[in-house]
């Protein structure tokens, strides 16, 4: 059953120091003040500040995510959710207009679980949004993207509840810190790390296969990871046990770890981190990495950065390097061809 209360509005912008505000009503509205200067024209992908609701005693974290699709000149818009407990919700996107009525599209209903995003791949044509004559650009070159959300019933899955999940996460972190009941050792020529077979096997299909043949008569108590092209074993294990990495020394090496041991969450974590700090100097290395390891969002961000900043990545010695990666070079060519139509 849906419940309604007074509409609550919250406007946030990237310039604010405080990005998070808690809303306790069951019908909320969130407005993302997006400066035109914040996004790149081709292949831009970005997220709004966090927006927190507190419904039925549970906290939910929401973000709007936008993307400019270079292939059809449209603006995609999605609503993303993070929480320990799922929720049923109805939502409607809109674009504010200072000349006439706001532009909105139909009401949608979805079951949100942590990490899910729902939305509209072609919310509006990019040129329509950015043409000042249409009224969508406000003072200080701001576009106001909004979403109205009606919060429904929380959705529990089996015995999962807030206290249980939080307690389990804390237990795993303590296991990592204290090495209690460790029954496996990862070994390189330089160091050793204590770990737990069941935890590694649950997070990595590669570890699961390596440990599948372990028996009482022939136990697998040591795994040599020297040949894994993984120079970040410590950070990899920290992610497996805690879901994050406090201070990875080399994200590219961490990508190798995620790929070699097939840890999807770690791969996604590295991709998101690598999308920040792109420069002309590192664009070639990261572009090849993104292609070799299927980091498609990173690849799009790098190509857009190269165009916007006129990087010499496609010239001289860099071009000679790209020629040795013909599939990537072909994809870059397609990207530039699509941009010509903008």
UniProtKB/TrEMBL annotation:
<protein>
    <submittedName>
        <fullName>Speckle-type POZ protein</fullName>
    </submittedName>
</protein>
<keyword id="KW-0732">Signal</keyword>
<feature type="domain" description="BTB">
    <location>
        <begin position="182"/>
        <end position="249"/>
    </location>
</feature>
<feature type="signal peptide">
    <location>
        <begin position="1"/>
        <end position="20"/>
    </location>
</feature>
<dbReference type="InterPro" id="IPR011333">
    <property type="entry name" value="SKP1/BTB/POZ_sf"/>
</dbReference>
<dbReference type="Pfam" id="PF00651">
    <property type="entry name" value="BTB"/>
</dbReference>
<dbReference type="InterPro" id="IPR000210">
    <property type="entry name" value="BTB/POZ_dom"/>
</dbReference>
